[in-house]
Structure formats: C-alpha cells, structure tokens
Design brief:
By secondary structure, the protein is α/β, with parallel strands linked by helices. It is built from seven helices and 34 strands. The protein folds into two domains: 7-234, Alpha-Beta Complex (Spore Coat Polysaccharide Biosynthesis Protein SpsA, Chain A), CATH 3.90.550; 255-374, UDP N-Acetylglucosamine Acyltransferase, domain 1, CATH 2.160.10.10.
Length: 375
C-alpha cells in the first residue's frame, strides 16, 4: 500500500490512538476511581507524560479510546494539550471491548489512508515513535510491535524474532519456563489500516491473542527492539518504581515554594501548597501531591501521596500509596505495600500490616495485622 505520511517542520501526519478505557484491577482500590492513565507520576498524570512525548515526536493528532467514565475523568483533569488535536472514540458497549475492539471502534476516526500509532495508556515508555515507524515502513509490515527485554516475560506477550526482525512466534502470557524469549510486547504499535480487516466488529477482541498470532503465521508481523526506559504501571510496586526512577533524574523535578519545619531527604517531589510540620522527616523517594498536609514528627519514605491528603502527628508511612483526600490520624503506622483508596479515613493509633488495601471512603478504627482488602 502507499504510505502517505507527510513530515513538515518536524511534525508528522501520523495519528496516535491511545487506549485509556480500562480501570486496572491490580491497582485497586485507587483504580476504582481513576483509569491507570491518570495515575500521577511525579505529580503529573501518566497521560500528560504521553502527550508530551507525542509532541516531542512531532505528532499532532490524538484519538483517545475511552469508556464514558474515563472520558469524564480525563476532561476533569484538564491536562495541557500542548497543541495536540484530541478526539474521543467512545466505547458505547456495556462490556469492555478488550484491546482489539477499541481499535476497530476507532476505524473511522483513524482513517484508511496511512499507518497509525497505538499506545496502551498504562505504559511509561521512553521510545522514539519515529524510529518504530521507520522499521514499519522498511519492512512493509502490516503491524510492528515495540519490544523490550525484561527478566520475567510471563505477564506479557512474548515475541520470537527472525534475523530480519520478523516475529515468527507471538505468545500471550506464557509460563515463564515456556517463554521463547525475554522480548515482550511493550504496548506500542504501528498498524497499517488493513489491520481493521483482522478485527471482528461489535465484540470483545484481544489483539494479542487473536490478531498478532495470525499475523505472525502470515509473516506480516515485525518487531522493533528498544532499550530505553519502559515500565508498565499496572502493579503497585511498579507504580512506585517509576516514581523512584524519575526522582533519580533531578532535571525532571520542579521546585515549589513550600512551608516546612521538618527535614527533607532527597530525592523528593512536592506539588504546590505542601505543608510539613516540625520534626517530620520526608524522603527519600517521597512524592507529595498538591495541598498535602503533614503534621509534626511524621515519617514518610518511599511513598506516593495523592493530592489533599492529611497525615497527622507521629504517623509513619513507608512504601505505601495514599489516595486523594485521605485523612490519617495520629500515631498511625502504614507499612510497605499498603494502598489507601480515595477519601479513606484512618483513626488514631491504627497499624496497617504489609499489603493492606482500603477501599474508597472507608473508615478504619482498628488495626489490620494481616494482608487483606478492607471493603
């Protein structure tokens, strides 16, 4: 087919389709109230990082594949568009359409003229989109997948390549011992419009299980390996990890004026209007959102605190994720792996053991000493 992508003044006519409709089960209870694409990374929504990377790559047109709820939440965030033209492809079905269904649903918006970029909305990937497009055009592929090396490929789609970078085998989430390689699907694709012929309409479709293996059999699926930063924020530990990784890159940090009588141990990131009380120690690897209030003699380490949270005197937060508008009482201890949903209230003197999660708007007055979800 004819490639009709024009490049002018560093910009390209390549359209980007971002899949942001899903609410991640592994990040519950925080994902009960926001899609993964809106989780804050250094106090900036993941989707904003993605927008900025698209602009950097000269892309100016974005289609967001969303559910009704995700669309409302994204619009409420008022993420800077940086010149991007943004349209919404709305999932009007009651049941999720998987990864392939939303691509098919966006067919008219994407058009049939040229290849397009597809991004999973829960991926942080420092990748040059123009390079994967070059691979796609050079190989005359129907689909080209960005591939990344990981230690454990069992959670992802795994690709086995020929010397020409053609994907000869694509297996979704194989057992670790049966994975053909450690090259995994990084959630970034270039697809030619003919892909729409491979996706059934009006039902849930897994592009990884139904479409990619078929393309591999036909010799029309290629891979593009990249080695830069990549992380799937779908697990709580990985969400904390991407914040830690970027905290180590001091050039990314924005300094805000703040009131503190405590001690700050770098690296940390604070949004606007953070207040820290006397004798408190914040950091290392602490991220505090807008309007967070920290009392006296509080210790916070290796944690992300969402906006408008209050953590009262003599409390300890270590290795946890604290949701929006959470209120934590005095002498509370929150241990590693804990997740507190939005609007949770923790009474004084409560201890939460490792890996305790609290559902949104729940009030907790007694200690929880075993890993569990408090509903």
């Amino acid at each position: 087919m004819n490639i009709n992508l024009q490049v002018k003044n560093g910009e390209t006519s390549l359209k980007a389709l971002i899949l942001v409709g899903g609410f991640g089960t592994r990040l519950r209870p925080l994902s009960c109230t926001r899609p993964k694409a809106l989780f804050p990374i250094l106090n900036k929504p993941l989707l904003q990082w993605t927008f900025e990377r698209l602009v950097k790559n000269g892309i100016r047109e974005v289609i967001l594949a969303v559910s009704h709820q995700a669309e409302i939440l994204i619009k409420q965030q008022k993420i800077p568009k940086n010149g991007l033209k943004i349209t919404y492809s709305r999932d009007l079905f009651k049941k999720p359409l998987g990864t392939g269904g939303p691509i098919k649903k966006a067919e008219k918006l994407v058009g049939r003229d040229s290849p397009f970029l597809v991004l999973n909305g829960d991926i942080f990937a420092d990748i040059d989109y123009k390079e994967i497009l070059k691979t796609h055009e050079k190989k005359k592929a129907l689909a080209t997948i960005a591939l990344h090396n990981v230690k454990d490929p069992s959670r992802y789609g795994v690709a086995e390549l020929t010397k020409e970078n053609r994907i000869k085998t694509f297996v979704e989430k194989p057992p670790r011992k049966l994975a053909p390689t450690n090259l995994i699907n990084a959630g970034v694709y270039i697809l030619s419009p003919k892909i729409f012929e491979y996706i059934p309409q009006g039902r849930k479709v897994s592009i990884e299980r139904e479409v990619f293996p078929k393309l591999a059999e036909e010799g029309r699926l290629y891979g593009h390996i990249f080695d830069d930063l990549w992380i799937d924020i779908g697990e709580p530990e990985e969400f904390l990890e991407i914040n830690r990784t970027l905290l180590n890159s001091t050039a990314l940090l924005q300094k805000h004026k703040m009131r503190t009588r405590g001690k700050i141990e770098e690296p940390v990131a604070f949004d606007k209007n953070v207040l820290i009380g006397e004798e408190s120690v914040v950091g290392p690897y602490a991220v505090l959102g807008r309007n967070v209030t920290i009392g006296n003699n509080v210790y916070i380490k290796d944690s992300v605190v969402f906006p408008n949270a209050v953590i009262s005197d003599f409390s300890i937060v270590n290795g946890a994720i604290i949701g929006e508008n959470v209120v934590i009482g005095k002498k509370v201890k929150i241990n590693r792996g804990c997740i507190l949903g939005d609007n949770v209230k923790i009474e004084d003197n409560v201890t939460l053991a490792n890996r305790v999660s609290i559902c949104p708007a729940k009030e907790v007055s007694e200690s929880v000493l075993k890993p569990k979800c408090v509903i």
